[in-house]
Amino acid sequence: MAVTETIVPAGGLVLVTGVNGFIASHIANLLLKQGYAVRGSIRSLERGAWVQEAFAERHPKGTFSTIQVADVNAEAAWGKAIAGVDGIVHVAGDMSFGADPNQVITPMVNGVRNLLRTAAKEKSVKRFVFTSSNRAALNPIPGKELTVHRNLWNDSAIAGAWRPPPYEADRIWDVYAALKAQVEQEVWRFSKEENPHFVVNTILPDFVVGPIFHPKQPGSTGKWVMDFWRDPGHYEPLKNFIPQWFVDVEDTAFLHIASLTQEDVKGERLWGFADTFNFNSWVGVFRKVDPKRKWPEDDPEQGHDLTKIDTSREVELLKRFGQDGWTSFFESVKRNVLDTPAAWPA
Average pLDDT for residues 250-273, to the nearest whole number? Predict the structure, then answer.
């Protein structure tokens, strides 16, 4: 593929924010595997010391460095981190699951605006990719048929998040969904109204499954899978999770890389929706992977996500990276439980 001024060139430098996180670490890993240089931001160099060691071990000939950005929302936070980069993948976010939108949403909206304005001053930046979420578009509602379109926003969650106080725990998921929606909306507003010189794309992954990258990572959604796998009695988190779509963590990473490197991917929202699942899906995989252990019975009351979504664009992009479409639920869960480091959690 010919190098143009609008894509990250082969060997180019990419800033991956929150590189110690579940999704971000896999993005960085695949970028390094493909020969790109990676600069990863972390909030604390001390707590993230394992990051440098892990990538040096996996990619001894790769170019990887870390930079501390203690407050991702500060106005002057990103100048040094962005200097000289060809592309930015902004994964870092607020995972506090707080109930007060003023404390969760407002700082992150201001923060992404600061990041974009800093990027607009750096002429080397060609691509900006934002990690959003399925919740930015919709809340999963089992049993309800819904056709998802590219311009769908989770207006009900935004309204729920900003309803008058008191700010109690019953609005946590609305605040989280509204956070993802309103930060992504600010990314698109900036792209449209301030017309930066770089291309903007966003990725909306659903429930992300796959191996935890390092023993010192909390593991995000991969943790819930591991907890159930290691203790069949610890099934409540996944049993109570609303049936919805999933996506493999490496498929998610490839969609980010496509957004950085593919000439025709411009101004797109890409869906990380591979297949649907419910509690019985997890149990079905575990029985096949380890039939000797006693697993819970299927729950006949489990619902199903009936959302319809066209992901032919995403499948086509995955095939450019040698993938045969989406990774299956079985394969992704199998890798989650068998390829996560035995020492996790450290």
Answer: 99
Specify whether the CB–CB gap between 333 and 285 falls below 8 A: yes
List the domain boundaries for the chain.
Answer: 13-208+248-273+311-321, 209-247+274-310+322-345
Note the pLDDT of residue 294: 96
Average pLDDT, whole number, for the chain? 96
DSSP-derived 3-state class of residue 310: coil
Q: Is the pTM here over 0.85, yes or no? A: yes
**Triad 162, 167, 172: Cα angle to 5°:** 75
Residue 132 pLDDT > 80: yes
Fold classification of 13-208+248-273+311-321 (topology level): Rossmann fold (3.40.50)
Asked if residue 243 has a cis previous peptide bond (ω within 30° of 0), the answer is: no
CA pair distance 213, 24, nearest whole angstrom: 10
- CB of 180 within 8 A of CB of 133? yes
For residues 190-205, average pLDDT: 99
The predicted pLDDT at position 2 comes to 45
Torsion from C-alpha of 303, 309, 314, 318, nearest 10 degrees: 40
> In this predicted structure, what is the pLDDT of residue 4?
55
CB 260 within 8 A of CB 8: yes
- 208: β partners: 247
205 strand-pairing partners: 272
